[in-house]
Amino acid sequence: MNKQQSNQVRIELKQQFPLTIKRIGINGEGVGFFKRKIVFVPGALPGEEVVVEVTKVHPKFTEARVKKIRKASPQRTKAPCPVYEQCGGCQLQHLEYQGQLDAKRDILIQSLERHTKLNLDELDIRPTIGMDNPWHYRNKSQFQVGTQDGKAIAGLYSMNSNKLIDIDECIVQHPLTNKVTTEIIRIINDFKIPVYDEKQKRQIIKTIVTRVGFETGQVQVVLVTTEKKVPQKDLLVQEISKRLPEVVSIVQNINPKKTSLIFGDQTINLQGKDSIKERLDEFTYELSARAFFQLNPIQTSKLYGEAKKAAALTGNEKVVDAYCGVGTIGLWLADGAKEIRGMDVIKEGIDDAKKNAKASRVNHADYYVGSAEDLMPKWKQEGWRPDVVVVDPPRVGCDRKFLDTIKEVKPKRFVYVSCNPSTLAKDIEYLKREYRVEYLQPVDMFPQTAHVEVVAKLTLK
């Protein structure tokens, strides 16, 4: 078949064909090729020979589902979660853990292949650092609230759907977050507290966010609502305190918008403290409702340890902790730095960072509300330039202005902690004239999912 004929091959909806799975895709699906066209198959594993049925046809790729497994991977295993296939929160429970770690390194490689022109054979891409026990590791749950058969439920939306899956126990969550969320739903049902306004056709309570300190046992509950007034709110708060003594902070966040963002701009303390405490090694952190903190404390120690290795501090360096949140990474590096400056656009996070530095007796760290792209050039004009910049940005990656600031300020080392290999790869490509990639270290922060965290060490050429 010539090239022109192969381009004319059409794949039809509901068409069935055999497929050999080559690798795991960035969303955890199996990847194969049919008539030179890429096919994504959720639930299929590398090395498997399957028969698939086409579910969606796109111009550049096809989606399909497994009809039959002719040859199963030796790493295929039975997923222990009863709602695994409906929920969509995890993607890899059916793959043995070592296979997950190998797949995550390959997901990083795929991102570099797609978004950079680097010679990957020359790159030091290290094996993924995993967990001894890859279950019950998440310290925070964000369960959506809905109704089913006249009762309130809490859970996650099914993959590519608006169907809410009722979840009593999520086996990747810390047991306390499960217990607290389930009990709050029980309180809502016991006292018939409405979560949906039938007249207005509008959600009242949208989300229950529960965060636990692994080391302290303290729990914070955030009730995300569409408006300030919630029917029987005082009774709800009273019952949470009565039934759940481990809950030391109850907060309301108001988000009236229809958006994928959980939190709105207004936060009100309903009972107890504004924050909870968490410890990582010798550091204690104050965590307010909207402050960012890593979701897997056990792996966070390993992740920040890798960031510290990459920073290669000798005691004489000035360090910028960009997108610093509550100051976690900066404090982790503090004993090897001459001076730390951190910044974030969320004021509550900076307030927490200052408290955390004081609690850890770190006197050479200062924190600022603002963006790195505004503050760093200003400091450069004042004669202050960092030797090392550490950044842990959101999934969208670094702001282009921030990367331009890195090019302008030229720190000797740039340590990039990424939760999205695709945006990491794009940002590395943008910086490649000025910075060389020393190595990339994947860390598994979210076992059973397709997510992978990466510490990239970049040095000035």
UniProtKB/TrEMBL annotation:
Residues 10-68 form the TRAM domain. This is RNA methyltransferase. S-adenosyl-L-methionine binds at Q294, Y323, D344, D392. NCBIfam families: rumA (TIGR00479). One of its GO terms (molecular function) is 4 iron, 4 sulfur cluster binding. The active site is at C419 (nucleophile), C419. GO terms for biological process: rRNA base methylation. Keywords: 4Fe-4S, Iron, Iron-sulfur, Metal-binding, Methyltransferase, S-adenosyl-L-methionine, Transferase. Belongs to the class I-like SAM-binding methyltransferase superfamily. RNA M5U methyltransferase family. Pfam families: TRAM (PF01938), tRNA_U5-meth_tr (PF05958). It comes from the Bacteria.
